[in-house]
Amino acid sequence: MLALTAVTASADQRQERIQINAESGDYDMRTGLQTLVGNVRIVQGDLRVEADEGRAYRSDGELERVELFGSPTTWRMVMEDGSVTTGRSEQLNYDLQTGQITMIGDARIEDAQGTFSGASLSYNLGSERIEGTGGVELVLEPGQRREADPPEPEPEPEDAPEDEDDGTDEPPSADPDD
What pTM, to 2 d.p., does this model score? Predict the structure, then answer.
């Protein structure tokens, strides 16, 4: 499957701390709702998300769901192999309980191998399956290599002279009469 469908982080990264920052916000301890306004930034491992505003829902001390809104919301993730995948949409919903990420409104995922876009894109972290609706477009870039792939080694020239071993440990003599 295309690298652009690999929106997920490694299992270890999903266990990392989530840091959420915004210009202002409030937290209702009774309902577990945190409202975030202005320059919302979320960081978890190599995942970076930016939005204009958002809501985070907690239950029993655990973060359950995050809803982000923006013009647009954007995210950038460094994948396990070192390549970069980015996305944008008007709204992004992440249900941590089901592992479902839904991008709504002019949704687009892009990496070096191509783009996948539509009115809505939905990605399940468990099944690693992405689905799109509303005029889905998939564009594949020919011959693109993932950023972390090393270049192919150059072949050795066939006509290069090989060092001959005369069986002695002495360096070859510089005297032309030897």
Answer: 0.68
